[in-house]
Amino acid sequence: MQPTTPEPYSAPGKVTWPTVAVPGQLGHAPEAAPAADDRVLQTAPEDQPAEESVPDQQPTHGSELLDELRAQIAKFVILPSPEALDAVTLWVAATHLQPAWQHAPRLAVVGPAKRCGKSRLLDVLTETVHEPMLTINTTPAAVFRSITEEPPTLLVDEADTIFGTPKQAEKNEEMRGLLNAGHQRNRYVTRVVGNDHTPHKFATFAMAALAGIGDLPDTIMDRAVVIRMRRRAEGESVKPFRSRRDTPALHDLRDRIAAWARPLLDEAADLEPEMPVEDRAADTWEPLVIIADLAAGAWPRRAREACVRMVAAEIEVEEDQPGGARILADIRRVFVAQREVDSLSTDELLHHLRQNPECPWAEWGRNGLTARNLADMLRQFDIKPGNIRLADGTQRKGYMRNKFLDAWRRYCPTVHPVDAESTTPAMG
Question: Where are the stretches annotated Disordered (predicted)?
């Protein structure tokens, strides 16, 4: 028996999304999108900041509502930057137009320790987003059975108790898969239902905010607007949040934002704004930028500025993590410092990596980074050591620079930008 396929969402006055082709059934399959691993996050050039290309517009009712929402959030929570406060404000407003979006951005609210304001921010989100659904101790089955074509907004507190350790992550792999699938429209899970075990497809598409200590799984962080919370410093103060006193005003603001946004549903679905970033980062930030463009005022500029700076910050965080893009970026710096030589022996490359006091490689393992460690890290990028000829005519094991070019372009484009014509990293 074939799985049942939901009808396209076509409620009166709402956006209609085409039905997705089902394998084994008639229909035209959509053109394959590039694999996620083949995508490169790129930001606007430093000499062309996004905010200069988007002049401020006249204030509107929408921009005034966003200003009011921003002030309400700041009343109860200290965000790590003005850009983070703008991003949270736009994310909240975007939850009220979820049927218009192709992608449902996650909001990852993470911090290094307790008492950083993560749960308090979730309290405020609960009273301002569209149809909040708290998912503490909720099973994945209960979540996807609660998601309709007019989805709720998922709110997950203490996400570190779900994904914090490898054992926890393995136990909750289904929840992670649900959150990953729900980032893009028309990604369903199939389950059998009823006494006759009829296959049925359940929607997963819904915006979600997750708060926890430490980073969430990479696949979730890659689909998220990341808010890195900090403890309040001495002299910083916020208003205590009291549900009985503060909820009515937040609900009133929520309802006014919804009343402003809902008539704009079709317009929001048709907009394709110029984005200052690319690929998955653009997918994630597009709903926030569209909300800003609909609101006008200063918000189009502020949204793009927040997008550029916060995406760039996350790229830096990724590059600072041992292994992965970090080892690629550090090897790139070594080749640049050695005047773009064609190859380096393994021993010489390891020597330069360990010599950098800002890198973790001297303390990597018991005796620093070894040749085997290096080979293991680079294998995932399809880079392997081989025989190279040294200046004195002898041969040794080492790495050819041209073997790194593709990986550098894909995983660390912000370090020594690649010249498009020569495919060599630019100096300086």
Answer: 1-62
Residues 307 and 383 in one domain: no
- Is residue 427, in this structure, part of any structural domain at all? no
Q: Is 10 a residue whose pLDDT tops 60?
A: no
Q: Are residues 248 and 185 part of one domain?
A: yes
Instruction: Examine the domain organization and report whether 117 and 99 are in the same domain.
Output: yes
Say if strands 224-228 and 106-111 run parallel, antiparallel, or are unpaired.
parallel
Domain count for the chain? 2
**One domain for residues 312 and 332:** no
The answer to whether residue 48 scores a pLDDT higher than 60 is no
pTM value > 0.85: no
Return the residue matching tokens 């989805």.
151
* Three-state DSSP string of 55-87: CCCCCCHHHHHHHHHHHHHHHHCCCCCHHHHHH
Residue in this structure with the two tokens 């909720």, named with its chain if needed: 138
3, part of any domain: no
Query: What is the distance between the terminal CA atoms of the chain, rounded to a whole angstrom?
Result: 62
Long-range contacts of 3-12 (CB under 8 A, 24+ apart): 3/190, 3/199, 3/200, 3/201, 4/198, 4/199, 4/200, 4/201, 5/201, 6/149, 6/188, 6/201, 6/203, 9/99, 9/149, 9/150, 11/149, 11/150
Helix (H) or strand (E) holding 211: strand 208-213
* CA separation for the pair 252, 258 (Å, rounded): 10
The answer to whether residue 36 scores a pLDDT higher than 50 is no
What's the pLDDT at 129? 97
Cα–Cα dist 76/125, whole Å: 11
Q: Which pLDDT score, from 0 to 100, does residue 327 have?
A: 87
What gap in Å lies between CA 68 and CA 256, rounded to an integer?
11
**Are residues 398 and 352 in contact, defined by beta-carbon separation less than 8 angstroms?**
no
Predicted confidence band of residue 157 (pLDDT cuts 50, 70, 90):
confident
The candidate with the shortest Cα–Cα distance to 325, out of 397, 282, 380, 257, is 380
**For residue 18, is it within any domain?**
no
Q: Which of 287, 320, 353 is the last residue of a domain?
A: 320
Residues 337 and 279 in one domain: no
